[in-house]
Amino acid sequence: MGRVAWPAKKRYRWRNEFGEGIHIDIHTQAVQLPATYWPQNSAVPPLYQTAAYTYHSVDQVDRIFLGEESGYTYTRGGNPTSETLAALVRDLEGGDGAVVAASGMGALLVGIMTLAPKPTPILLAREVYGGSVGLVRQVLEPLGYSLNWVDARDEMAIRAALSKGPGLLLVETISNPLGRVSPLDTLIPAAHQAGCKVLVDNTFATPYHARPLQWGADLVMHSVTKFIGGHSDLILGVLVGSDKWVDRAASLINVMGVTPDPYASWLALRGARTLALRMERASENAMTLAAMLKNHAALVKVYYPGLTSHPDYAIARRILSRGFGAIFALHLKGGRRAVERFASGLKLVPFVPSLGDVMTTISHPAVASHRELSAEEQETVGIDDGVVRVSVGIENVRDLIEDFGSALTEAEPV
Questions:
Q1: CA 93, CA 91: separation in Å to the nearest integer?
Q2: Which residues are catalytic?
Q3: Any idea where the domains of the chain sit in the sequence?
Q4: How many Cα atoms are found within 13 Å in the side-chain-facing hemisphere of 80?
């Protein structure tokens, strides 16, 4: 049983009570929980680190399974901590409902299976995360789904792809790693007109910069591991949308077992409360740093949607709010050797094959996030051994400018 709320009455931990004068063995005593009441006035949501829940009667459990009474039976189908996180992200995205999954990839798979339960064409934007490509190829194609690449910014190509029949369109608000921005305001209505459902990965933009449900996205997905959690200490995903789709997704999460760990949800709740502050600072830092580096002699190009040189700058100005995100990409002259010199020259910025931390990190898409793509596909997207993805944190930007400048000087071709 999942996605239910506690009734508006005192919450308590049920326990066996022993009458006065009854003596029990320590082996029995050790497994009995004391009469501990959950306080109603806790300043933060408590952590419900439990796999199951106790009840007084068979009839009560039956009523909960039937949906006649609020409650939880088994954490695979629902947990108060995870549902508090879901409610927070739901409100941030402006959705009717939300449900948390064990990982971003788990949420993505559930989202696809929710909107397209039977094999169908999956229209995949060219620049999506390599793991999303791997999911379609390794899991969904063997089941009969098909992968169809589309350029999310080419209206004629999109309409041609949509004209072949209904399917599922999967796009990222801001793409990984080159910061391509999808024109969601025109793309989603066009897809719906053709009978195509739309799943938007909003991980890079976060609700701080964009809320795709306002343009009609059927489901919005996040890797909570990244900016919502914000501290590289948890693995979670989330789906947000209408109650119809979220109820279906919650049911799949239950039966598929891609259940979030309550402690990870509790950590994510703690991190999410500073999301706006972190994204404001990180986005400002990214804009300043990208602008300072764009003409560096060691670079072929800087990819950041906030730069006028970016191919989607006009779309980004229209779609994104309060800045352009915390991610940009550097294309170094000299390929992988230059990247190695650059990474070694950084003193404050570690190499981390992930993103979204409070500290600035770098990664190498060709060998990490996009290794699922063939060399030809990487070339089509614009990724090669000289591309470095930068996830900008909340440090003092002057320190970052100095560190990047020094490391790039060391990476300049001899």
A1: 5
A2: 76, 129, 201, 226
A3: 78-272, 275-411
A4: 17
